[in-house]
Amino acid sequence: MTSYETAQIVGYIWIMNLHRGGFGVPSLVKKDTANEKEPIVVMKTVNKVNNYMKEYEVQKFLSERKECKHIVEMFEMHEVGNVAMFLMEYLIQEDLQQRIEAQVSLSLTKAQYFYRQLIRGLEFIHSKRICHRDIKPANLFLDGRDCLKIGDFGLSDYYMDAQGNQILLRNRVGSQFASAPEVWSRNNLRVAGPPTDVWSTGIVLFVMLTGTVPWDCANFQCTRYMNFMNFNIGSSAWSQLDGKVILFLRDVLSHTPQDRLTIQDIKAEPWYMEDIGRVLPIPEPVWLRPELEDM
């Protein structure tokens, strides 16, 4: 069944497909009503063999509470045959990966601006006993005023039960380049959740500043990772970075989860607290792209 047909079944008009989304096929749709001001939303179609219900419930729970503006809002879900359709907030800007690729890399000022938003969003997610487990630039979305929002909760899970007891999570999930060493280690069957998300924020910061990933996978078989572990970074992308950023990232990207900075530690770090520069205000956005106005 095409996205056009699926949208019709649930009372929406298909507009166009979007070429992004790791765990689903996203399209732009609009409710089939006479109201011309009906907002455009994203419809993401996922196969029901995936853990779709948890993804929906987690993102709906986080976004409907209106406590944090850094979560992509989930509106509703429909099920048709063997697929489920999520209706979510449409952010007219690109995802962070596309922004980085368009600009090759971001300024230190802009990277800090986005990183702070990521940490605030992640702090909120963790406060609800949830671990995202796939933090990377392609899963971070920007609205018309450069407000960063975390999306794609397809791998998320609870790391703590309602009584406050820790739940260790299964490993070997997520994108290898952004995953903490323990996630893809053959020695660990279960891992603590929050430290793995913190590690991934360090990778996001590195990619923003250099336009490239530091390594393919953080393990002892990877030469680039071992160079980082041994402080041998002179001829790599690390040499582009400010010394304070390198020191900060070394603590965020600590190999051992117990030695890694926590979110509270990060918020107390001088690099995080001190304003590197001023980010100019973004003008009020045009909420409808010109090419969609006549559709």
Q: What report would you give on this structure?
A:
By secondary structure, the protein is an alpha+beta fold. The protein folds into two domains: 11-92, Phosphorylase Kinase, domain 1, CATH 3.30.200; 96-273, Transferase(Phosphotransferase) domain 1 (Transferase(Phosphotransferase), domain 1), CATH 1.10.510.10. It has nine helices and eleven strands. The protein has helices at residues 3-9, 52-64, 96-103, 108-127, 193-210, 223-229, 243-252, 263-268, 270-273, and strands at 12-17, 25-31, 40-47, 74-80, 83-89, 130-131, 140-142, 148-150, 157-158, 169-170, 190-191. The strands form four sheets. It has a five-stranded antiparallel sheet with strand order 1-2-3-5-4. Strands 6-9 form a two-stranded antiparallel ribbon. A hairpin with a 7-residue loop joins β1 and β2. α4 (108-127) packs antiparallel against α5. The longest helix is centred in the middle third of the chain and has 20 residues, at 108-127. The chain is globular. The model is unreliable at 284-295 (pLDDT under 50).
Topology:
Blueprint: H1 3-9, E1 12-17, E2 25-31, E3 40-47, H2 52-64, E4 74-80, E5 83-89, H3 96-103, H4 108-127, E6 130-131, E7 140-142, E8 148-150, E9 157-158, E10 169-170, E11 190-191, H5 193-210, H6 223-229, H7 243-252, H8 263-268, H9 270-273
Antiparallel strand pairs: 1-2, 2-3, 3-5, 4-5, 6-9, 7-8, 10-11
Helix pairs in contact: 4-5
